[in-house]
Write a structure and sequence with these properties.
61% helix; flat; 17 helices; 364 residues; alpha/beta
Length: 364
């Protein structure tokens, strides 16, 4: 425990109090109450970085967990996230957060297609608190725009954020493009794996599991300079088989084919209403997308883990995941001439079948 944390605990200002207050505010949809929680925490001695990481980020993590467990609707999750973003804005403008930029210059951005901007926003504020000049570009930054920004600035590094694995090919292109202009890249977010395996796979110059770790890594010294003439294919030689490219290009046709085939293999689907059919189609889109990402990364377990997560999400919403194995079988039949795709789909079916042997509600 740091001296500041010990001092706060001794005076009854532990983050738990503020976490509970902010959680109530965001779930009530009360932006003013959320701002007041953050302001009072700062004024009563909790340092700004702790408010960001131990209060706001913790509450946001719980928002995601509650959505996954079907205890928060999509609308409530969006509302809570927006209020947390406003809480970060209130903190950044508070006198307790004022610092002088004495280190270097960091660009913080989300990869193109990544709308989950709050983690990147929190990182940007943490880096500012630690004395960096930060250019925060926000969500969904097209790679050409990012590179144009780097050409205009004398940037020491780029911090790229992505939360969803389906953005990994785009992240890879952004990493390579930044490195091509001589700027090293630090990445973070759930898309890169809990242990950073996909950061290493895609050739990033650094990875951090959270904002605090990212700030500490940058404080240690410059990231290694990128290797010249590095190409994405250098990281992923298995892409030479073209399976990823062909699946990605035919994704719309694959979804339509599996949807039609599922109606005959899963008779219960014939009784689905329009909303259920719409949800099924959306699930199939995600299945094909994640199959493509498993092909891109060469990681079979990525797809199997996604299926396990999806099964849990469906179960939490009282939707039996029994339709998943038949859908995977239809897809496997359609891709029978693709060895890697077929292997990945077989593993997915085996994982789901094995999981189905555990009774619902058994947490052992």
């Amino acid at each position: 425990m740091s001296t500041n944390a010990f001092h706060s605990a001794q005076n009854g200002r532990t983050p738990r109090r503020w976490v509970d207050g902010l959680w109530k505010a965001v779930t009530d949809g009360n932006e003013h109450a959320a701002t007041e929680v953050v302001t009072r925490a700062l004024e009563q001695g909790l340092d700004a970085e702790s408010v960001l990481l131990d209060v706001i980020a913790r509450v946001q993590g719980r928002v995601g967990e509650e959505w996954a467990a079907n205890r928060l609707s999509v609308a409530s999750e969006h509302t809570a996230t927006a209020i947390n973003d406003r809480a970060v804005a209130a903190l950044s403008l508070h006198p307790a957060s004022r610092t002088t930029a004495e280190r270097g210059r960091i660009t913080v951005a989300c990869v193109d297609g990544e709308w989950h901007a709050l983690p990147a926003r929190i990182l940007a504020e943490v880096l500012k608190l630690r004395g960096w000049h930060v250019d925060y570009l926000g969500a969904q930054v097209p790679t050409p725009h990012l590179i144009a920004h780097l050409h205009r600035t004398n940037c020491d590094a780029v911090a790229l954020s992505s939360s969803i694995s389906t953005r990994l090919p785009t992240a890879h292109a952004a990493i390579t493009a930044c490195q091509a202009v001589g700027v090293p890249v630090l990445v973070g977010g759930a898309a890169f794996g809990a242990d950073g395996r996909y950061a290493r796979l895609l050739g990033a110059d650094g990875w951090a599991p959270d904002a605090r770790a990212a700030a500490e890594r940058l404080a240690l010294g410059p990231l290694p300079r990128p290797q010249p003439n590095h190409q994405p294919i250098d990281d992923l030689p298995h892409l030479a088989d073209q399976e990823f490219t062909l699946v990605a290009r035919s994704s719309t046709t694959l979804v339509r084919t599996v949807f039609t085939g599922l109606e005959s293999r899963f008779p219960a689907m014939r009784a689905y209403n329009d909303q259920q059919r719409e949800h099924t189609a959306a699930d199939l889109v995600h299945i094909v997308e994640f199959l493509g990402i498993a092909l891109y990364t060469g990681d079979d377990d990525l797809f199997a883990d996604f299926l396990t997560w999806t099964s849990g999400i469906l179960a939490a919403r009282n939707v039996p995941p029994h339709s998943l194995p038949p859908a995977l079988q239809v897809l496997a039949d359609e891709l029978k001439d693709f060895p890697r795709a077929t292997r990945i789909l077989r593993l997915g079916i085996e994982r789901l079948t094995s999981a189905a042997l555990v009774p619902v509600g058994n947490t052992a």
